[in-house]
Specification:
Blueprint lengths: L25 H17 L13 H13 L1 H14 L4 E6 L5 E3 L1 H7 L2 H16 L1 E6 L13 E3 L5 E2 L4 E3 L8 E3 L3 H4 L2 E5 L6 H25 L3 E5 L5 H17 L9 E5 L5 H22 L12 H37 L7 E4 L7 H12 L6 H8 L12 H6 L16 H8 L16
Antiparallel strand pairs: 1-2, 1-11, 3-4, 3-8, 5-6, 6-7, 9-10
């Protein structure tokens, strides 16, 4: 049974795409860059109706690298792990400029389809553009958006704002400037060919390097069994060679009394270091390009200060990504959702301002806070998953009076130290009134 296509939408079944993501070379990348440069040069002089901004073969190159290189795939997953999740919300801004989270509205945007929207925005930075299709249907089981699609990039001419049925052919097509498509389709165009344009030639060179490295290791990196015999007879030598060849399978070798068998292994040569160093350079450059730091993508640093510096750069880069997502959301996505009636007017998409830190730093921060302020047990459970009871280091003034503490005594005194240790540390006995910081003066 054919389902009815909603009015003002493009039937994705009509789109025909050709995928060529195998055996890519740097020469193909160079040709696509030349084509794009030609397009930018002549686009003002060509009338509408001519295919100009066809990036289908460039997308083939991008996806080939993403499919076949484990390092860049891991880098992208690291990026998405910092972008998706429960870090964002829908909020209203009050008179003091503070964002107040709308819990009900936030729950409606925390789902798989909304994650697809955020992923599409991030991929626009990587590929250069993304065309989102947001349908106003609601999933009756979850009450959230039922369908969000990313239109195949090979069929999108981003600068010409047109979707074609088949790449390389102008007709039939759908013009995104047509008012009937404005409500459901959002073209996110960065104006360039994306960050992948800088990583693709590196990865293509790395693939060539790895292939040569495998051939080199297969030819020169295997250990060699070297046999010596005192016999001058060719038949004896051939017999020994046959015994050596069969030794790997039979696990037994029979030699003469004075024959010698050596297994020669090779250490890493300078030629091997050329291959491995090139691979390390490419991985480092790819991580720096996308994340701003190689250490956050699995690289090892020699000392703690260097790692912390890379973490700061990484967090700054993630902040830039989040700000970009917030702008696209509030300028393009949220108005559409309001027009659908999916969320209320006056809400803004916002990432939370919580500090991103590792577990050790988080524990230190909470130790500092709980020593000076009362923290709700629910907050500790939410952050660490540990159920706690009453906070021991919080005492009210009434409790202080009932305990016989003077007003000058610190409320931080939890009587952990003995009286002798207390006197040795602070220079006065417990519960004494210190009138001057220089004891013994008038």
């Amino acid at each position: 049974m054919d389902k009815k296509q909603p009015e003002g939408t493009i039937n994705p079944e009509l789109l025909h795409s050709i995928f060529r993501t195998s055996k890519k070379t740097i020469q193909e990348y160079v040709r696509e860059i030349e084509r794009h440069n030609s397009y930018k040069t002549i686009k003002q002089d060509v009338l509408l109706g001519t295919i100009l901004d066809d990036r289908s073969r460039l997308i083939d190159l991008y996806e080939a690298c993403l499919q076949q290189d484990a390092h860049i795939r891991a880098v992208i997953e690291t990026l998405l792990s910092q972008i998706l999740g429960d870090r964002y919300m829908l909020a209203r801004i009050n008179d003091k400029g503070k964002y107040i989270k709308d819990i009900a509205a936030t729950q409606r945007i925390q789902g798989s389809q909304f994650d697809k929207i955020i992923r599409g925005i991030v991929e626009a930075k990587l590929y250069g553009y993304t065309l989102l299709e947001i349908l106003p249907r609601i999933n009756p089981k979850t009450g959230k958006l039922a369908e969000v699609n990313i239109i195949e990039r090979r069929n999108v001419l981003p600068d010409q704002r047109t979707v074609v049925k088949r790449q390389g052919l102008w007709l039939p097509n759908w013009n995104l400037d047509n008012p009937q498509y404005h409500k459901n389709y959002i073209l996110i165009n960065t104006g360039d060919i994306g960050l992948f344009s800088a990583t693709t030639p590196l990865i293509l060179a790395k693939k060539f390097t790895i292939a040569n490295y495998v051939n080199f290791s297969h030819t020169y990196g295997q250990p060699i069994i070297h046999g010596k015999t005192v016999s001058e007879s060719n038949s004896d030598r051939k017999k020994l060679a046959g015994e050596i060849a069969n030794a790997a399978q039979n696990k037994v070798i029979v030699t003469g009394l004075e024959d010698e068998i050596d297994i020669k292994t090779f250490t890493m040569s300078n030629s091997e270091k050329i291959y491995t160093s090139l691979i390390e350079v490419v991985n480092s450059e790819v991580s720096n390009m996308i994340l701003g730091s190689e250490s956050m993508a699995g690289g090892m640093q020699s000392y703690v200060g260097s790692t912390k510096a890379h973490q700061d750069i990484f967090r700054e880069r993630i902040e830039v990504y989040r700000r970009y997502i917030e702008n696209i959301m509030n300028e393009e996505i949220v108005p559409r959702l309001i027009s659908f009636g999916y969320i209320e007017n006056g809400l803004e998409f916002k990432y939370s301002n919580r500090i991103e830190m590792n577990n050790e730093d988080r524990i230190k921060l909470y130790g500092l806070i709980t020593d000076k302020y009362e923290v709700a047990a629910d907050e500790i459970e939410k952050e660490f998953g540990i159920i706690v009871g009453k906070q021991l280091n919080v005492m009210t003034m009434e409790a202080m009076d009932s305990a016989g503490m003077s007003s000058g005594e610190s409320s931080n005194d939890r009587h952990i130290m003995s009286d002798q240790e207390y006197y040795k540390r602070y220079g006065h006995p417990r519960r004494s009134k210190v009138e001057n910081f220089l004891r013994g003066t008038d």
